[in-house]
Design brief:
Number of strands: 7
CATH architecture: 3-Layer(aba) Sandwich
Number of domains: 1
Radius of gyration: 17 Å
Largest sheet: 7 strands, antiparallel
Strand order of the largest sheet: 4-3-2-1-5-7-6
Structural class: alpha+beta
CATH superfamily: Class II aldolase/adducin N-terminal domain
Number of helices: 7
């Protein structure tokens, strides 16, 4: 993590509260007492510091998708390069398919009005629109155009893992396209096999 870039949050559904990083505080200085608790409308319920400026984007995801238990927003190098290029991260290999069921999409750019008024809320809404009609846990990441990735999971640990994997597959994709600019996406049947053997109803990967 560079400087104070990015943020993370987790939700307690029973309590209706979201714990989120305070705005502008170095990660090295974070202690539990500095974490801010907000409700799903963004009202601070506990904590003396201001919550992350990206709180409205996190809340949009929690309100829209009840399976999401934590959200991580990074500015990790390679994933952010794809976001800045406004290009999805293609699924070129099985490492990608083990975690994400298809390419990592990128949102359309926000309009001037969306940026000027309630910018962070509109970021969240743009992500939600990308996910409508799909399973957000099948591809738990979206790139925001010109900005950076938002990643999530059913728990804080899974969201962090997904964010780390996203950065690695972005790096792999970039290097693959440097070696072969015409590299084709992974065949659908192979993508599906790798994703479903870990995440499908009849998954058989690991110890069960």
């Amino acid at each position: 993590v560079t400087q104070t870039w990015g943020n993370a949050s987790a939700i307690d559904r029973a309590a209706g509260l979201v714990a989120i990083k305070p705005s502008g505080v170095d990660y090295d200085e974070l202690v539990p007492e500095k974490i801010v608790l907000v409700d799903l409308e963004g009202r601070v319920r506990e904590g003396d510091l201001n919550p992350s400026v990206d709180t409205p984007a996190h809340l949009a995801l929690y309100r829209a998708f009840h399976g999401i238990g934590a959200v991580v927003h990074t500015h990790s190098h390679f994933a952010t390069c794809f976001a800045q290029a406004r290009r999805p991260i293609p699924c070129l290999g099985t490492t990608h398919a083990d975690y994400f069921n298809g390419e990592i999409p990128v949102t359309p750019p926000l309009s001037r009005d969306e940026v000027v008024d309630s910018y962070e809320k509109h970021i969240g809404e743009a992500i939600v629109r990308m996910l409508v009609g799909s399973d957000p846990m099948a591809c738990p990441a979206v790139l925001t155009a010109g900005h950076a990735p938002f990643v999530w999971g059913h728990s804080p640990w899974k969201a962090v893992e997904n964010a780390a994997v996203l950065e690695e597959i972005a790096r792999m994709a970039l290097h693959t396209l440097q070696i072969n600019p015409q590299a084709e996406p992974l065949e659908g049947y192979l993508l599906g096999k790798h994703f479903l053997r870990k995440h499908g109803r009849d998954a058989y990967y690991g110890q069960r």
